[in-house]
Amino acid sequence: MILSLILIALIALGGMSLTYIFADDEPLLWRLSAGTVIGSAIFGTIVFVTASFFGLNATTVLASFIITLTPLLLLKRKNLRKGFLLDRRRANDQLRGKSPIKLFNSLYYVFFVLLFLVFFERTMFETSLGIFTGGSQNLGDLPFHLGAIFSFTEANNFPPKNPSFAGARFSYPFIADIVTASFMKLGIGVKDAMLVQNIAWAFSLLVILERFVFKLTNDRLAAKIAPALLYFSGGLGFLWFFNDYWQQGKNFLEFIWALPKDYTISESFRWGNSLVALFLTQRSLLLGMPLSLIVLGYLWKIFTAETQRRGDVVERKSLILPQSSLIPFAVGLFAGLLPLIHLHSLAILFIVTAFLFLLKPDRWLEWIAFGIGVSLIAVPQLIWSMSGSASEAGKFFEWHFGWDSRDSNFLWFWFKNTGIVIPFTLLGFYLVFLSKRSNNATGLNDAEKSGKAGKKKKLKDERLVSNPPNEARDANYFYLPFVFLFLAANSAKLAPWEWDNIKVLIYWFVGSIPFIAFALAWLWRKSTPLKIGAAFCFIFLILSGALDVWRTVSGQIKNRIFDADAVVIADKIKLRTAPNALFLNAPTYNSAVVLTGRQSLMRYPGHLSSHGIEYAARENDVKIIYSGGPAAAALLQKYGIEYVLISPEERNTLRANENFFIQYPVIAEEGQYKVYKVQN
């Protein structure tokens, strides 16, 4: 664990140095958080490239670390070092002294760190009975990521081939899993590596989102509210929770410690809580979203051409790239890393940039420079991942109204799933549009206002000024592409499985959060009745999600993925087969082969179909092989299968004909697991 913390800290320092290229007025905490994300993205990409030529080993990993850390040399530059020391001094000033606000800020971040620690510990845990997950939605996703990670560490799967569908290019974004595999090559266990990375990325997302909301609303209270809205997202499920409580005989404490189900994701609810349904299961999004928000924050700066002073913080120009067109180009290079991190995030940035270009064409030089930077990195990655991929592009678009509403009324579906999110977004949109400077508005005063009053005084950090009219209109215009995302995701399937549209819808929600948080902050500052109303609305927005998060962190979910015999047989397979061996196993998500890093002819159809892979013919061949006979022998030769696994899954679901396979030698056996060698 300690080594993993040291490595992620080094990655953060290397990435932090690069923030001085494009960020001129950010606090040190934001720089370290952005550095964690940028550094992880760069490090993972460098490992991918170097390992594709030289294999994944301690040498290539250490070399990649050195390259990732080279931006620290920029601190030798006098102007950059001066900027860093200024940021550090301001950070120290924030920590000195005692005040209710400073105490609140400290407790605020400590709370989320502890939450992430306890929550992500449930991603994977081992007992004498096997490998488990404490995430209700992680039953299929954890073995998918483990299969990718172990294919890198055990089978040196570079350039990456799809471990779940032999012979195809691994086109699923895998950089997050490569970062984990790299840590493992330095002696860190898979559980600790994933845990530290997940916590670091989740906390970085919190800080980056907080700053993003502050930039759009100029409201610190709204910025503090925003992360809770994201991490405890949900709808009206808490009403079902109270109904379940009233219909059973337990007291409240007994019931809350034994919740019967999730209240944001089920047959009745499809808008799953972000932590439970997305960040725990989709590690690529956990890295891709904060990187996208960093880029969106810079696009907002271009869009507003922000030049004003804020408080006592004087805007600094880039300390590295003086030419204005080079800065968006550099930010575009960071965004260009997204295809192998989280492809949907790249698509979101493309849509947002296109809208902003149309809304502010006078900034054309910056938009084009940004686009060139993105293309320079992203296009080669896209070409590589698409060539040899088994995914069919035609399966990623189809007209389909209402997302995953099924037979539900569209309006009721969205109200049930998101509660007052849409009404509060509209209220916040209206309030931001109408917001003006006023003497009684809370916030950081600006130099112009202080000058008119004939006084210059430094307001407390917790006070904010409302958005000037021009900036308010800019915030409303900036939201337009996110509205488009909502409409598009409700008009068509943007992935083979319609629920995967949530990868687009979550960005609509993130784009809505500044307005929701601004509306809550506005109500809080009004009369006592409205303050009480704001508190109830905040609880209304987060209660369902908080219940699902609580169900996870309290250890109520214990889903076994691999039994103890599967773990043992996997170890034996790694000792007795070549790393690049091809296995036949039942098309399921939790085959013991997953833990070996070896390739399977075919695994879980749910994963394959969601990636646009046509698997029906191969699935039929798998059934024929397990049934035995002359056709089975011919298919074994056709696919070049070297080993066949027979376990309870193959016996129960495929009725494996073991009489056929006894002609082959058994190279590993444990309990009800047997591995036959079918090729010499």
Label the overall shape. Answer: globular
Strand content: 5-15%
Tally of contiguous helical segments: 29
- Between the first and last Cα atoms, what is the distance in angstroms? 42 Å
Low-confidence spans: 306-316, 436-466
Radius of gyration: 26 Å
What's the story with the biggest beta sheet? 5 strands, mixed
Mean pLDDT: 91
Specify the helix fraction band. 55-70%
- Order of strands in the sheet with the most strands? 7-6-8-10-9
Oligomeric state as shown: single chain
Secondary-structure map:
Layout: H1 2-18, H2 28-54, H3 58-69, H4 78-95, H5 100-121, E1 125-127, E2 130-133, H6 141-153, H7 175-184, H8 190-217, H9 220-231, H10 237-246, H11 252-256, H12 274-279, H13 283-304, H14 326-335, H15 343-359, H16 364-386, E3 398-399, H17 410-418, H18 421-434, H19 447-453, H20 469-478, H21 480-489, E4 492-493, H22 502-524, H23 528-553, E5 559-563, H24 564-576, E6 582-584, E7 599-600, H25 605-610, H26 616-627, H27 630-639, E8 643-646, H28 648-653, H29 658-661, E9 666-670, E10 673-677
